[in-house]
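User: Please write out a complete single-protein record containing the residue sequence and its fold in C-alpha cell form, without commentary.

AI:
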Amino acid sequence: MPAFAVPARLFLISAVVAAGSTLCACSPQAGASTEQAAFRINGEPVSEHQLELVLPRGAIGDSEAQSQAAGRQAVAELVQDSLAAQAARKAGLDRDPRTVQMIEAAQREVLARAYEERLAGTAVEPSSDEIDQFYEAHPAWFAQRKLMWLQEAVLPLPAARLDARKARLQAATTPDKTMEALRVEGVPLNARQFALQPEETPQALLDGLAPLRVGQSLVLPQEGGVRVLTVLQTQSAAVSRSAAVKQVAALIRGERRRKAVERGLAALQQQAKVEYIGRSLQWTAAASAPLQR
C-alpha cells in the first residue's frame, strides 16, 4: 500500500507541544481546577488536558498490556518533567533570558502550527471520481504494482566513460555479469542489494525500471559518477481499486492540505510588511521566498 510521508516539521511540533505542556502543567498560573486535575505535584495541579497531550495514541495491533505500559511511561515522564520545571522556577531559570527566548520560540511555533492546521482544514475531501482518476493515473502504485529487489552499484566514473561498456551492460543477464561489465581497473566499485517499494520511489525512476526484466540494468548518471540498478527479482503486488480507496483518498487529501497551507501562508506573506534589519539583510531573498512544505 502507498506509504505516507510524515513531514519532519510534525516531529518538531510534537517536541514543542511536549515542552509547552510541561511548562504549563506545573505552573501555578495554569488555572487547572480541582475538578479537571489529573493529579497534583507538590500541591500544583496537572490538568486532564495536559495529560491528554502526552498520552500516546494507541497503534493498530497494540495489546492492552502494551497500551497500558505506554501510558504509564508517558505519565512517569510528565511527572519527572513537571518536577524539573518546578525546580527550574524555584531556581529562577524561568526568568533567565535564554529560557525566556526558548519559551517565546516554542509559543510562536505552536501558534504557527495551529494556524497551519486551520488552513489545512479548509481542504476539500476528494470525490469518488477523483479517487478513480488518481488510481488510474498511478498504475505502478496500484493496478500494476510490483515489488522489486535490486542490486545497486555505484561507480565514481563519468557516464561518458561507460560508453564502451554499454554493449556488455545491455547483454548482461545476471548481477555477476553486470558487475564484471562495470569493473574498471583502479576504480572502486561499491554494491548493495535492497527492496524497492513503488510508492516510495520517484515516478521517473519507476518508469525507467518498469520495462526491465530480471538481470537487466538501468544506468543513472549522478554527481561524481554513475549509479547502476540491476533487477534481481520482481513480484506482482497489485492493489485493487476497492482496497486502495482509503489510501488514495488520504494521498489526495494530504496534497490538498499541503497546498491549502501554502496558499494561506503565501497570502499572509503578500499582505505583510516585513522589514529586515541588521544581520537578517543577508538572508532577505531566502526569507521572502515561499517555503516548500
Summary: The first helix runs from residue 8 to 25. Confidence is low (pLDDT under 50) at residues 1-26, 28-32.
